[in-house]
């Protein structure tokens, strides 16, 4: 900033101003404010409260829909882990890693070959 002032270069002056005041003070203030207000802890607590609300909502919906068949309701709740454990429905999936290689061409092909490797996850 000082070089910009002494050389009367408005670009260097504005860059220096930005580096000192915006990048320096403002970013530091935001970081300090987040630490001061315990932002990380607040985010964690908010996420846990939202997860609890979602579990309760799903539980209420299942209780309302399957009130006449408690055995089915309990099996659904168990498979979704509504009451305890990792909440959600676990799905198995196939994973394929693919890439294009420029050094391999199939006979008569004008474009490079697509190589694919598959792996099956445990269900």
Instruction: Give helix and strand order, one letter per element, not per position.
Output: HHHHEE
> If you compute it from the alpha carbons, what radius of gyration comes out, rounded to the nearest whole angstrom?
29 Å
Distance between the termini: 61 Å
Q: If strands are numbered along the chain, what order do they take across the biggest sheet?
A: 1-2
**Average predicted confidence as pLDDT:** 76
Number of helices: 4
Number of strands: 2
Q: Roughly how much helix do the residues carry, as a percent range?
A: 55-70%
Q: In percent terms, what proportion of residues is strand?
A: 5-15%
Low-confidence parts lasting 5 or more residues at pLDDT below 50? none
Shape call? flat
Q: What class, by secondary structure content?
A: alpha+beta
Q: Profile the largest sheet.
A: 2 strands, antiparallel
Provide a concise account of the structure shown:
With 123 residues, the chain is of the alpha+beta class.
Outline the structure in words.
The protein is an alpha+beta fold. The protein has a domain at 2-80. Helix content is 58%, strand content 13%. The protein is built from four helices and two strands; from the N terminus they run ααααββ. It has helices at residues 2-7, 10-36, 39-65, 70-80; strands at 94-101, 113-120. It has a two-stranded antiparallel ribbon. α3 (39-65) runs antiparallel to α4. The longest helix has 27 residues, at 10-36. The chain is flat, with a radius of gyration of 29 Å. The model has no long low-confidence stretch (mean pLDDT 76).
